[in-house]
Design goal:
The protein has 89 residues and is mainly beta. It has no helices and seven strands.
Length: 89
């Protein structure tokens, strides 16, 4: 598993704080930090997938996500097999 915070670029205004977490089978979750009843919680706002293009069914890759780089318009993710994927978000 891997994780990364999106900190923004220079003086970029952010509506919410984002946390990216990488998981097995090519899944990346994007979370927003919220305060609910005085408690810190994470709200899942989007899920990204590494798709295995060699399969006809479009299933996820079997490898886990080992690194994440979140930029303003794109997210780069790397898996345990050495593949890098860019995803617009």
């Amino acid at each position: 598993m891997s994780c990364a915070f999106y900190d923004g670029v220079d003086n970029e205004w952010q509506e919410r704080e984002l946390l990216f977490t990488g998981h097995r089978r090519g899944v990346v979750n994007i979370w927003s930090k919220i305060i609910n009843g005085g408690r810190f919680e994470l709200e899942l706002i989007r899920q990204l997938h590494h798709i295995d293009n060699s399969r006809d069914n479009g299933a996820n890759i079997p490898a886990g996500i080992s690194c994440i780089l979140a930029l303003p318009q794109i997210v780069y993710t790397g898996d345990e097999a050495g593949r890098v994927v860019s995803i617009l978000w």
